[in-house]
């Protein structure tokens, strides 16, 4: 299980990550782009994964990770049941979500 405070701490540990409201949810952003949201009412996170990562997480834990059931889900937005996910698995998915949204560093 992942608490909201653990979620917040992990999300804000990324470079330039900020917390802002997003309708009735809390969002975490980098350069004004959302990489994760928290739905307090349902104790769920939504992460922005790429197609491959989404399929891997959903296949390995379909009761914990599943695409949003609309066009957003087809774009990689993935629901995570925070009451069921192992902290290490959530942190891995959150990091991938951040990396998908964060600007790429120039070499």
TrEMBL record:
Q: Which residues form a coiled coil?
A: none
- Top-level lineage group: Bacteria
Q: Keyword check for Transferase, yes or no.
A: no
Q: Does the keyword DNA repair apply?
A: no
Pfam families per record:
YjbR
Entry-linked InterPro entries: YjbR-like_sf, YjbR/MT2646/Rv2570-like
SUPFAM superfamilies associated with the record? YjbR-like (SSF142906)
Instruction: For this UniProt record, give its keywords in alphabetical order, as a comma-separated list.
Output: DNA-binding
Molecular functions per Gene Ontology: DNA binding
Instruction: List the protein's name.
Output: MmcQ/YjbR family DNA-binding protein
Please name the source species: Flavobacterium soyae
């Amino acid at each position: 299980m992942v608490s909201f405070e653990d979620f917040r701490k992990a999300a804000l540990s990324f470079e330039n990550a900020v917390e802002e409201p997003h309708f009735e949810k809390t969002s975490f952003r980098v350069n004004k782009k959302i990489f994760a949201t928290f739905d307090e009412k349902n104790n769920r996170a939504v992460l922005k994964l790429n197609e491959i990562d989404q399929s891997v997480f959903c296949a390995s834990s379909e009761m914990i990770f599943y695409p949003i059931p609309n066009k957003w889900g087809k774009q990689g937005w993935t629901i995570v049941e925070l009451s069921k996910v192992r902290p290490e698995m959530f942190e891995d998915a959150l990091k991938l979500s951040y990396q998908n949204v964060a600007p790429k560093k120039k070499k």
